[in-house]
């Protein structure tokens, strides 16, 4: 609908030789998506579900109109923050709840955005019926298989990238035993999840996704070994993603480009999928100018890493406003992790991203 309107408005302007206003995509570099190089998607998580349910506000994506406007204007990729997770989309064994995720996919189509699907095989945010049920191995395997076929199939052709396997290794680079599927069925289930997802949507790019992979170490080594093995076995793995949940308690992610490059060298896509940069809030809760400047350099360093690697085509921040950030809920005394304040006013980190994108586009 909106597209038709643009054509109608643009035609007379073109006839007069004037430049039509560009609603989406490449314009004068005023928003992140407009500033970005053509082959790089700029994304945000779409707030809803998860921790939001316990907060004193209604579902952000559904009810906050200014929020939706910024989401449409600034980004050309969206990731459901919780709405495609098992506990949300598959709340009972024989019932799926597609409504909230469908609304995001529709919004994305209307606004010229791609969607990153998140996630299919994870240890967290699984429904009670799955966590507490008693199943034979064969049953559990068929539960995972039919979940993947149903969910990926439902969105067939509408998802650019799927985080198929999320956080499957612990800090020691071992398979996480908290993951019910890995624990009960063994690590080979990871390959099956990729095969099933590929059958259900042959065009979606299928990713491994984790945090704590922003610096080299045993976790990165584990992913590199797994990626090599999956590729050798002709498993449809297409990408490796760094979530990049960063804290200013630790150093800047200055080795991220070299980590991403190792996966690029295997022929994989890479992506930044959940970037935020939290900090210890001073008394009163307002970050200092110096903290905001440091935060901006962290954001820029992550974007620079992605820009430096050929196959890094997707750069997503985990929400764009502190109003809805998961950080204060999960990391007590830390906060201010996103690029905009509660009222969507822009922080230095926002401008650092925009200026870096603009410079890269030339
Ligand atoms: C977080 C969400 O932001 C919260 O709303 C939810 O309560 C918990 O999960 N790694 C991931 C994301 O892959 O799915 C997590 O998102 C953050 C860490």
Q: Would you kindly provide a written description of the structure presented here, covering whatever features stand out?
A:
The chain has 362 residues and is α/β, with parallel strands linked by helices. It has a single domain, classed as Glycosidases (TIM Barrel). It is 42% helix and 16% strand. It contains 15 helices and ten strands. The chain has an eight-stranded parallel beta barrel, surrounded by five helices. Helix 13 (289-308) links the parallel strand 8 (269-280) and strand 9 (312-317). Helix 8 (137-154) runs parallel beside helix 10, helix 12 (256-264) runs parallel beside helix 13 (289-308) and helix 13 (289-308) runs parallel beside helix 15 (348-361). It starts with a helix and ends with a helix. Residues 1-28 have low confidence and may be disordered. The structure holds (3S,4R)-3-hydroxy-2-oxopiperidin-4-yl beta-D-xylopyranoside (XIL). (3S,4R)-3-hydroxy-2-oxopiperidin-4-yl beta-D-xylopyranoside (XIL) binds at residues 50-52, 81-82, 166, 243, 245, 274, 326. (3S,4R)-3-hydroxy-2-oxopiperidin-4-yl beta-D-xylopyranoside binds next to loops.
CATH class descriptor: Alpha Beta
CATH architecture: Alpha-Beta Barrel
The fold-level CATH name is TIM Barrel
Q: Can you tell me the CATH superfamily? A: Glycosidases
Number of strands: 10
- How many distinct helices? 15
What bound compounds does this protein have? Answer: (3S,4R)-3-hydroxy-2-oxopiperidin-4-yl beta-D-xylopyranoside
Beta-strand fraction estimate: 15-25%
Provide mean pLDDT, rounded.
93
Percent helix, as a range, is 40-55%
- Along the chain, the helix and strand elements come as HHEHHEHHEHHEHHEHEEHEHEHEH
Total individual domains = 1
Task: Give the assembly state of these chains.
Answer: single chain
């Amino acid at each position: 609908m909106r597209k038709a309107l643009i054509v109608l408005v643009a035609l007379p302007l073109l006839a007069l030789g004037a430049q039509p206003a560009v609603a989406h995509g490449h314009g004068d570099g005023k928003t992140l998506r407009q500033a970005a190089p053509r082959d790089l998607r700029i994304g945000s998580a779409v707030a809803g579900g998860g921790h939001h349910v316990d907060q004193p506000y209604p579902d952000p994506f559904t009810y906050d109109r200014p929020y939706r406007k910024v989401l449409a204007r600034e980004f050309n990729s969206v990731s459901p923050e919780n709405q495609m997770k098992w506990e949300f989309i598959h709340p009972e064994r024989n019932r799926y709840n597609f409504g909230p995720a469908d609304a995001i996919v529709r919004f994305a189509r209307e606004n010229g955005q791609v969607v990153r699907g998140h996630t299919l095989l994870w240890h967290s945010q699984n429904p009670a019926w799955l966590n507490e049920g008693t199943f034979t191995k064969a049953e559990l395997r068929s539960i995972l298989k039919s979940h993947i076929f149903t969910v990926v199939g439902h969105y067939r052709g509408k998802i650019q990238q799927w985080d198929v396997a999320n956080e499957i290794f612990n800090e020691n680079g071992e398979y996480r035993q908290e993951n019910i599927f890995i624990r009960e069925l063994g690590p080979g289930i990871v390959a099956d999840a990729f095969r099933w997802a590929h059958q259900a949507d042959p065009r979606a790019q299928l990713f491994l996704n984790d945090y704590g992979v922003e610096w080299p170490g045993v976790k990165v080594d584990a992913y590199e070994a797994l990626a090599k093995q999956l590729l050798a076995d002709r498993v449809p793995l297409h990408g490796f993603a760094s979530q990049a949940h960063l804290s200013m308690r630790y150093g800047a992610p200055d080795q991220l480009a070299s980590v991403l490059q190792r996966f690029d060298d295997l022929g994989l896509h890479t992506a930044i999928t959940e970037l935020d940069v939290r900090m210890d809030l001073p008394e009163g809760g307002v970050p200092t100018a110096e903290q905001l400047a440091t935060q901006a350099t962290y954001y820029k360093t992550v974007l620079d890493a992605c820009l430096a690697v050929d196959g890094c085509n997707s750069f997503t921040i985990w929400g764009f406003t502190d109003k809805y950030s998961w950080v204060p809920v999960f990391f007590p005394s830390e906060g201010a992790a996103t690029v905009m304040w509660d009222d969507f006013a822009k922080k230095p980190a926002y401008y650092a991203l925009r200026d870096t994108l603009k410079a890269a586009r030339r």
